[in-house]
Design brief:
Blueprint (H helix, E strand, L loop, with lengths): L44 H14 L4 H27 L8 H26 L5 H6 L3 E8 L4 E3 L12 E12 L5 E13 L31 E9 L9 E5 L6 E4 L3 H16 L5 H12 L7 H9 L10 H12 L13 H4 L4 H19 L3 H19 L5 H15 L7 H26 L4 H25 L1 E3 L2 H25 L4 H27 L4 E3 L4 H21 L3 H16 L2 H8 L6 E5 L8 E4 L5 E4 L5 H11 L3 E2 L2 E3 L4 H4 L2 H5 L3 E2 L2 E3 L6 H13 L4 E3 L5 E4 L2 E7 L17 E6 L2 E5 L5 H9 L11 E3 L10 H7 L3 E4 L12 H9 L3 E4 H4 L2 E4 L6 E4 L1
Parallel strand pairs: 4-6, 12-14, 13-15, 14-16, 16-17, 21-22, 22-23, 23-24
Antiparallel strand pairs: 1-3, 1-5, 2-3, 3-4, 5-6, 5-7, 8-9, 10-11, 10-25, 11-12, 18-19, 19-20, 20-21, 25-26
Length: 857
């Protein structure tokens, strides 16, 4: 959807504990007690829901049906209003006419929504771009950027990450075809710019939109900038709010034909100032704080983003209503006191009257939208805030449900594409949960002697999770079991991080040293939030797979209702609650001793383990209780960390990275997280350069030394010893690529002999056979097959090694055809038992000699 980030932002508003700032509660000015709450006013809910549903349906409907729907609804509404007015004139009771007025209001909203959706849907069919997309034509276009640039970082699925791309939402204003015709238009598109590779710098700062460290100039563009590009026009992959995708050619430097507006330049300076103020913070705080404050996620790594998604904390990476709530609370004070003499906040301390306070709040709301960009949750929060501030300014009281309904109605009429936005749906559901379920649940918890603040936070997190989880599961096909506790642990850190971050944002243009000090203070709570996300995501039972469809959502909703009904009975029995709580904690944490008893994994006395990390390599050699030598880290930090936690590894004397392909090193942060690591040993062939720089940067951030392996090196730790047999020192062989420079280990674990070949290709395999170490390779017990079992293996090496057990690490349905059937057949012909992670999951070798065995998880 336009205006949204990737699916990680879809979990917007899963816990909002200050939503009451969106309405003025309490009595008139000077009263000693607030008014008693009456029945909830639901009159605006049916029109809002009707407009929402109509917008979602009418975006793809032909104009004749849109016109017919609008005219029919207008006529029907007119008839109903006439009847209601006639009954009122003849003196009939007003109550009998009320349903007619309500139905007429619904029909009027349906007509307005149909017309708005029809006009927005027509934008996708207007102009020359749809026809040019069908022909995959190349055009010269002038486009006005309508969103911040965002990075698209594909997951590692091979030796190197796919090229990073910069994505923009844009409106094409002018199109020039190859035949020289120029056509003015206004067509929404998605612009995709493949980022140019650059040489890494030595600064050690994280990459931002490039293969190296220097940022792409495309990332500096601001909304409202107009650029001229040469692009290939292609159809969108799925129906949505864009008419075409522009694949931009020659992306080295953007050609700007019109500078951004003054408001966007100011917002850009503020955002850039916040980034500069956070430059000296630790990596997680540096990445997270701009996201918490203004939604700037350019520094968020794929690993950190995945951790936030798995713990349902992704809403903190997108600016939402909570940010605006915190700022307005500072201005207005607690909403229950907004219209009373004892009202709090900065406004009364500055002597500002109530209406001036409302106007100032409106200005803050407008600035909030400009600086933080009009994402769905930001628009929803701003609309709710505007309704509330209007209530303050006029002295009229508004309940929260009508404010939310009004916001939904106005927003879907303004931008009908929001009606199909998962982020907008989740934002409204979470806010609705806070306004309806959370107060009741909080009162019930307080009635059972739960402290009020804890009851409020727990009820808010649980209510938002209960209503949002069925929608989240459609997006992620996974149910998080740690979402509520992680949100509770992160809750108290969000407000100070946001307030201090906004203070740093405001001070950066005027006093950068002060901004840096404020950002340093904000870095502590921001780092805490990141630690909560990483720790929660790394727990073995952090989530369970679930059908990612609307059928799965319905099943989850039924399961949630069943749990809530059972919970109402269990809460009366504290001992039962405690017992179930302990069982849930054990299921999530899965302590290795208990897991070993229940599942048999890892098997007792395991010597060598091959982690299931998808298409990549990550293996562990046991070196004592809680100690292991890690050989390669796989492509995914979360999976690598989870595997090591399951194996109970807390101390790593050495991490061996056989070569620098991403499917062997990208998971290194997960290996290093929370463990004592002695050193990292790598190959001397520093290619790919960006991945080698990544390893050095990660090691330097944690104070871990990096050394180079050479043939002949021997080491020992505990009962484990190994010899490096490849690559040879010096210029004995110039490798044809990173694979041929793989560090190869001949390992002895008591009486067990293992050969770990990395990704050696046939030329290096033949050279290894001819080397002095070749005579040592005969008759190994376990072979880690080279290059994920690819078809490129040297038959001579397989005959010399003659393994009893051959293990292959490969991903399910990988695009490379690994493991190759010919390689598997050749190994079996040598008498080896062949197992692979794509079919057998994680593997662990136990015993030796006649007792050699292998177990899967």
């Amino acid at each position: 959807m336009r205006g949204e980030g990737y699916g990680g932002r879809a979990e917007e508003e899963t816990r909002r504990t200050r939503a009451a700032v969106h309405a003025a509660a309490g009595s008139r000015l000077g009263a000693s007690h607030p008014r008693q709450e009456g029945p909830t006013d639901l009159r605006l809910v049916p029109p809002a829901l009707a407009a929402w549903a109509t917008s979602a349906v009418m975006l793809d409907v032909a104009p004749v049906w849109v016109t017919g729907t609008a005219v029919g609804c207008l006529l029907a509404a007119g008839v109903l209003l006439s009847l209601a007015r006639g009954r009122a004139q003849v003196g009939l009771p007003g109550r009998s006419g009320w349903p007619r007025v309500t139905v007429a209001a619904v029909l009027l909203c349906v007509a307005a929504a149909a017309l708005s959706a029809g006009l927005h849907g027509a934008d996708l069919r207007r102009g020359p771009l749809p026809g040019l997309a069908e022909r995959y034509a190349t055009v010269i276009a002038e486009a006005e950027i309508t969103s911040d640039p965002r990075l698209f970082r594909p997951k590692v699925r091979g030796p190197a990450p796919a090229p990073t791309a910069v994505l923009f939402d844009a409106d094409v204003r002018r199109v020039e075809t190859r035949d020289g015709r120029a056509v003015a238009t206004r067509t929404p598109v998605l612009m995709v710019v493949d980022v140019e590779r650059r040489t890494p710098s030595s600064t050690g700062s994280p990459p931002r939109g490039t293969a190296g460290d220097r940022p792409s100039p495309w990332l500096a563009l601001l909304p409202s900038t107009r650029v001229r590009v040469t692009a290939r026009v292609v159809p969108p992959s799925e129906s949505g709010d864009i008419a075409a995708v522009l694949r931009v050619r020659d992306p080295a430097v953007p050609e700007v034909v019109e500078e951004p507006s003054a408001a966007q330049r100011l917002a850009g300076r503020l955002r850039a100032g916040l980034r500069e103020a956070t430059d000296g913070l630790p990596a997680d705080a540096r990445a997270l704080l701009p996201g918490l404050v203004v939604g700037d996620t350019a520094r968020i790594t794929p690993e950190l983003d995945q951790a936030f998604k798995e713990t349902d904390l992704a809403h903190t990476l997108a600016v939402s209503g909570s940010n605006l709530t915190i700022i307005l609370v500072l201005l207005v004070g607690p909403p229950g006191l907004a219209q009373r003499v004892e009202r709090r906040g900065l406004a009364p301390r500055l002597g500002l009257p109530l209406r001036t306070t409302a106007l100032l709040g409106g200005a803050l709301t407008l600035g909030f939208v400009v600086v933080c960009r009009p994402d769905p949750s930001v628009l929803r929060a701003a609309a709710c805030g505007a309704v509330t501030l209007l209530a303050l300014a006029t002295g009229r009281r508004r309940s929260l449900i009508p404010a939310l309904a009004t916001a939904v109605l106005l927003l879907v009429l303004y931008d009908p594409w929001l009606s199909r936005s998962y982020g907008f749906l989740l934002s409204v559901l979470a806010t609705g949960a806070l306004l309806t379920l959370a107060p009741r649940w909080s009162a019930a918890l307080r009635g059972r002697r739960v402290p009020p603040r804890l009851a409020e936070a727990l009820a808010a997190a649980a209510a938002a999770q209960a209503l949002c989880a069925p929608v989240v599961v459609v997006l992620s096909a996974r149910v998080s079991l740690v979402a509520v506790p992680c949100n509770l642990l992160a809750e108290f850190a969000i407000a100070p991080a946001t307030v201090l971050g906004f203070a740093a944002l405001a001070m950066a243009p005027w006093a950068m040293p002060v901004a840096k000090a404020l950002a340093w203070c904000a870095g502590w709570p921001a780092g805490w939030i990141a630690d909560v996300a990483r720790t929660g995501a790394a727990l073995p039972g952090a989530g369970v797979d679930w059908p990612g469809s609307w059928t799965g959502a319905a099943l989850l909703a039924l399961a949630t209702v069943a749990v809530l009904l059972a919970g109402r009975r269990l809460i009366r029995h504290p001992w039962w609650c405690g017992a179930f709580g302990v069982l849930l904690v054990l299921a999530v944490v899965q302590p290795p001793p208990l897991t070993r008893v229940v599942t048999g994994w890892p098997p007792p006395g395991w010597r060598f383990a091959m982690c299931d990390v998808g298409q990549g390599d990550a293996t562990v050699l046991a070196a004592g209780a809680g100690t292991g030598v890690v050989v390669d880290a796989g492509p995914d930090p979360v999976l690598a960390d989870r595997c090591l936690r399951t194996l109970g590894i807390t101390r790593i004397p050495l991490v061996v990275l056989t070569h620098f392909h991403a499917d062997h090193v990208a998971g290194l942060p997960g290996v290093l997280r929370g463990r004592q690591v002695g050193a990292i040993e790598t190959t001397g062939h520093q290619e790919p350069a960006e991945q080698a720089e990544f390893v050095r940067r990660e090691a330097a951030a944690r104070g871990v030394p990096v050394t180079r392996a050479t043939a002949g090196e021997e080491r020992r730790t505990g009962g484990l010893s190994w010899r490096v047999v490849w690559p040879p020192p010096g210029p004995a062989m110039v490798p044809e690529g990173p694979n041929d420079a793989s560090v190869t280990l001949l390992v002895r674990s008591s009486g067990l002999r293992l050969l770990l070949l990395g990704d050696l290709e046939p030329p290096a395999q033949r050279a290894l056979l001819r080397s002095p170490a070749g005579a040592l390779l005969g008759g190994v017990d376990v072979l880690k097959v080279a290059h994920h079992g690819s078809a490129y293996q040297d038959p001579g090496l397989l005959r010399r090694v003659a393994p009893r057990l051959a293990l292959i690490s490969a991903g399910v349905d990988n695009p490379y055809g690994h493991p190759a059937p010919g390689t598997v057949a050749a190994l079996r012909a040598q008498g080896a038992v062949v197992l692979s992670t794509d079919r057998d999951g994680a593997l662990a070798v136990t015993g030796e000699g006649a007792d050699l065995a292998v177990a899967g998880d």
